[in-house]
Design goal:
This protein is an alpha+beta fold and 479 residues long. It has helices spanning 6-12, 59-63, 114-119, 128-149, 208-218, 254-275, 277-292, 304-313, 321-329, 352-363, 413-422, 431-438, 451-459, and strands at 18-30, 34-40, 48-53, 70-79, 87-98, 154-155, 161-162, 174-175, 185-186, 189-190, 201-203, 220-228, 241-250, 317-320, 367-373, 389-397, 401-408, 444-450. Strands 6-12-13-18-17-16-15-14 form an eight-stranded mixed sheet, with helices on both faces. A five-stranded mixed beta barrel has the order 1-2-3-5-4. A hairpin with a 3-residue loop joins strand 1 (18-30) and strand 2. Helix 4 packs across helix 6, helix 4 packs across helix 7 (277-292) and helix 6 crosses helix 8. It is globular and about 85 Å long. The structure holds adenosine-5'-triphosphate (ATP) and manganese (II) ion (MN). Adenosine-5'-triphosphate binds at residues 169-170, 229, 231, 238-239, 242, 244, 402-405, 448, 450, 452-453.
Length: 479
């Protein structure tokens, strides 16, 4: 008999039909003669209720079935007696594929903390929360590719191991096959010419520089790949390994870059609202429960659905960095409190609390800040006429602050060399990046969207570690 998935059965299963279902047991309850088994196979949030009557299923089999076991059930679909479900399954035959001993199985049907679930990340896919998050994550992956593909962008794979350390987006992880107990040394320094690649290499912090090379020949490209940052920031918004989406567009200026980021984000979140209703409803209730246990001032300003609509339905407010600093200097986050980090004045980088204040309290719209001081931004951003600011932009969201960082790139060779010299970036290392400005240069722009920040926003999860299956963070690379 052909196996059916629970999602399909609940959507279109016909009463009287005989089906085979293989899935994991969420709960088992019942009396001496009849057992009710809630089954889930990950295809959807809902469980399929199996009715196992002692008349057809032996006691010996039923005794082996506990939360966490995997079973194969053959049976007939019947109209559901319980509420909320279309059909239930009257079992004729059950095979126990894999038992889960109740004294040992860590995922019993009760509330577990997110911290505990991270310790059993090998099993947490079996919770409603993580299966819902991962279904939305999957939906977003496809929505991203669909967005770009349908607009004529080419997907480019950029290298994961790179030889340039110049991007300056954060600390890098070294890549080497040296025996670390016996590293070759020459003139008191590590001799990387003996290393696998004959030079110092690291895991990429961004695919942008290589993405620019592609854009300056193919027009519109995007990358969607893993990036690595050895930043020791133990926040709820930083991972050491995360996925980034980086479009790069030839002939685009900063305004067009802002338009693209706004349209992309609004389209993606609309798509989640339209296609992931069940999972969203579940995650939304879950977040409401979580919020109740928080202190008033730590609560999220919006419910999950509100925050999705906040982005999908509002235009993004565009404000220059300089205007934003003026606003922040003249504001207090609320009557009693000051910002934890005071605004140091023009030239300082904004903290997440400042970004969130602008979005949540001041403008009540998603915000795009642009034209940042050059000293707090990367070398490749296009210098403005004022000589002090660069054509950078950050997109700011409620709850998480920065979700996108991007810029119009410096396409003029002499200006780019000047910025590299100011920032002590050796030209030899990026000769190929400079060549792009020597041969057929043109204006171009792009940005980086942190995929996990997007999933975090779309699912309302409080911690970024809970939106990637196996998070890598300082002192943690289990599984
Ligand atoms: P932040 O100031 O939040 O650390 P950043 O300025 O270092 O961000 P960029 O280098 O501009 O970020 O990277 C582009 C995007 O990648 C960011 O807007 C964010 O969405 C995401 N991002 C950056 N660092 C991380 C990280 N450690 N974990 C997850 N996502 C990240
Ligand atoms: Mn950072």
């Amino acid at each position: 008999m052909k196996r059916s998935e629970i999602k399909a059965l609940l959507a279109a299963g016909k009463v009287g039909e005989t089906v085979l279902v293989k899935a994991w047991v969420r709960t088992k309850r019942g009396s001496k003669n009849v057992n009710f088994i809630a089954l889930n196979d990950g295809s959807c949030l809902q469980n399929l209720q199996v009715v196992a009557d002692l008349k057809s299923i032996s006691e010996e089999i039923l005794q082996r079935i506990h939360t966490g076991a995997c079973i194969a059930v053959e049976g007939k679909l019947a109209e559901s007696q319980g509420s909320g479900q279309s059909v239930e399954l009257l079992a004729n035959k059950i095979d126990v594929l894999g038992e889960a001993h109740p004294d040992e199985y860590p995922l019993q049907p009760k509330k577990h903390s997110m911290e505990f679930l991270r310790e059993i990340a090998h099993l947490r896919f079996r919770t409603n929360t993580f299966s819902a998050v991962n279904r939305i994550r999957h939906h977003l992956i496809f929505a991203v590719h669909d967005y770009f593909n349908s607009r004529g962008f080419l997907n480019i794979h950029t290298p994961i191991i790179t030889g340039s350390d110049a991007e300056g987006a954060g600390e890098t992880f070294k890549v080497t096959n040296f025996d670390l107990k016996n590293v070759p040394v020459k003139d008191g320094e590590v001799d990387f010419s003996e290393d696998f690649f004959g030079k110092e290499t690291n895991l990429t912090v961004s695919g942008q520089l290589e993405g620019e090379l592609a854009a300056m020949a193919m027009g519109k490209i995007y990358t969607f790949g893993p990036t690595f940052r050895a930043e020791n920031s133990n926040t709820s918004r930083h991972l050491a390994e995360f996925w980034m989406i980086e479009p790069e567009v030839a002939f685009a200026d900063l305004d067009e870059n802002m338009d693209l980021s706004e349209d992309l984000l609004r389209t993606l979140l609309k798509s989640v609202l339209e296609n992931c209703a069940d999972d969203l409803e579940f995650l939304s209730k879950r977040r409401e429960d979580e919020e109740k246990n928080k202190k008033q001032e730590d609560r999220s300003p919006m419910s999950l659905l509100e925050q999705l609509k906040f982005v999908a339905e509002n235009e993004f407010k565009r404000v220059s960095y300089t205007e934003a600093i003026d606003i922040l200097r003249n504001s207090k986050p609320n009557k009693k409190k000051k910002f934890n980090y005071l605004i140091e004045g023009w030239g300082a980088d904004l903290q997440s609390e400042h970004e969130r204040f602008l979005v949540e309290k001041h403008f009540k719209q998603p915000v795009i800040l642009y034209d940042y001081p050059k000293d707090i931004k990367a070398f490749y951003m296009r210098l403005n006429e004022d000589g002090k600011t660069v054509r950078a932009m950050d997109v700011l969201f409620p709850g998480i602050g920065e979700i996108v960082g991007g810029s119009q790139r410096e396409e003029r060779l002499e200006e780019l060399k000047g910025r590299m010299a100011e920032m002590n970036i050796p030209e030899e290392e990026l000769w190929w990046y400079l060549d792009l400005r020597k041969f057929g240069t043109a204006p171009h722009a792009g940005f980086g969207l942190g995929f996990e920040r997007l999933v975090q926003f779309a699912t309302g999860m409080g911690n970024i570690r809970d939106v990637i299956p196996f998070p890598r963070t300082p002192k943690n690379a289990e599984f």
